[in-house]
């Protein structure tokens, strides 16, 4: 993959160009998703990120259809949920996602979690990629060992790995593995849902004040300069616009070093590599069947 620090896109290993500024719809209520996505598109976002387990693919599809932005200018991502893993079930679930999203192709399809039969699921999306239904494939929440595993024991190396990246979980070792494999990093929860005093962190506040920007803009610019795709979420158009406006300033080396010093290498949510996380995911799968 190749990019430049101030470019608005990254180029994936297969040559597909992906926007660095994305709009995510996780936890946006289904009845508010249409307006949120249409607002994001009208403000300039071209990367829209959803998932089967968000239960709002249909609303995203409606928004894309009603938007004045042509489909070929939108980079659409969705993710296969654990309960749809396995070769045949994954393929069927993607057909259903395409129907809900009102499109005949996906720009990026990810496996949402590194649990259950992700090998069968990955081989299914490899085949869908070869058929031209998907422009790029990847994974989400795959730690370095599992990312290396799926990369080395399958035909196609994942082109993207979407993981938690924020001030306190900067994923240095994870990013080294991705770089070695040519996998593009994408950040979910760049704001950490405001946990651990993210928006009042003295380092971020000081840098924000120095640049005349918001803490959110500093976080997103920090990711931009690290060539990490960001997935910001908001239901307020004014906040969406603020999050999008990160091109008119740059963080200095000193700013970047100060932010790097805040890393605790600890998730603000949970560690996917623990037995407790696996049990939690199993419970979540069962709950979402209801």
UniProtKB/TrEMBL annotation:
InterPro entries: AKR (IPR020471), Aldo/ket_reductase_CS (IPR018170), NAD(P)_OxRdtase_dom_sf (IPR036812), NADP_OxRdtase_dom (IPR023210). Residues 27-260 form the NADP-dependent oxidoreductase domain. PROSITE patterns: ALDOKETO_REDUCTASE_1, ALDOKETO_REDUCTASE_2. The keyword Zinc-finger does not apply. Pfam families: Aldo_ket_red (PF00248). It comes from the Bacteria. The keyword Oxidoreductase applies. Keywords: NADP, Oxidoreductase. Belongs to the aldo/keto reductase family. This is Aldo/keto reductase. It comes from Veillonella magna.
């Amino acid at each position: 993959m190749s990019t430049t620090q101030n470019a608005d896109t990254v180029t994936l290993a297969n040559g597909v160009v992906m926007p660095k500024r994305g709009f995510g719809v996780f936890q946006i209520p289904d009845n508010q998703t249409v307006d949120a996505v249409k607002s994001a598109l009208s403000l300039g976002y071209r990367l829209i990120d959803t998932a089967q387990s968000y239960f709002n693919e249909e609303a995203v599809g409606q928004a894309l259809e009603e938007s004045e932005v042509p489909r070929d200018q939108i980079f659409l991502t969705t993710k296969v949920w654990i309960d749809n893993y396995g070769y045949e079930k994954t393929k069927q679930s993607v057909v259903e996602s395409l129907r809900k999203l009102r499109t005949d192709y996906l720009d990026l399809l990810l496996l949402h979690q590194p649990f259950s039969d992700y090998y069968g699921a990955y081989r299914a999306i490899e085949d869908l990629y070869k058929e031209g239904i998907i422009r790029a494939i990847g994974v989400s929440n795959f730690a370095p060992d599992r990312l290396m595993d799926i990369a080395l024991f399958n035909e196609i190396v994942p082109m993207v790995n979407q993981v938690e990246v924020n001030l306190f979980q900067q994923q240095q070792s994870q990013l080294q593995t991705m770089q070695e494999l040519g996998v593009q990093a994408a950040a979910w929860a760049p704001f950490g849902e405001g946990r651990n005093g993210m928006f009042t962190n003295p380092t971020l506040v000081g840098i924000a004040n120095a640049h005349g920007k918001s803490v959110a803009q500093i976080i997103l610019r920090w990711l931009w300069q690290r060539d990490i795709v960001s997935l910001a979420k908001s239901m307020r158009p004014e906040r969406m616009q603020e999050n999008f406006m990160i091109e008119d300033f740059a963080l200095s080396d000193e700013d970047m070093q100060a932010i790097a010093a805040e890393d605790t290498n600890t998730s603000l949510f949970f560690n996917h590599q623990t037995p407790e996380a696996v049990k939690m995911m199993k419970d979540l799968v069962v709950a979402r069947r209801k």
